[in-house]
Design brief:
It comes from Parerythrobacter lacustris. This protein is an alpha+beta fold. It has 1 helix and 2 strands, in the order ββα.
């Protein structure tokens, strides 16, 4: 078991916040761009 601090992380293309690796993204981590489904759906909108 790895500690959360040891997991790879990225910055979300939608909200700009950092997010950590998840088991469900194991196979396609290189193509993951958004931290959540909500950010993926709202990718064209800029929040204030």
């Amino acid at each position: 078991m790895r500690k959360k601090a040891e997991l790879p992380s990225k910055t979300c293309a939608g909200c700009g916040l950092p997010f950590a690796w998840r088991k469900k993204w194991e196979r396609d981590w290189d193509s993951v761009r958004y931290c959540s489904e909500r950010c993926r759906r709202n990718k064209g909108r800029v929040e204030a």
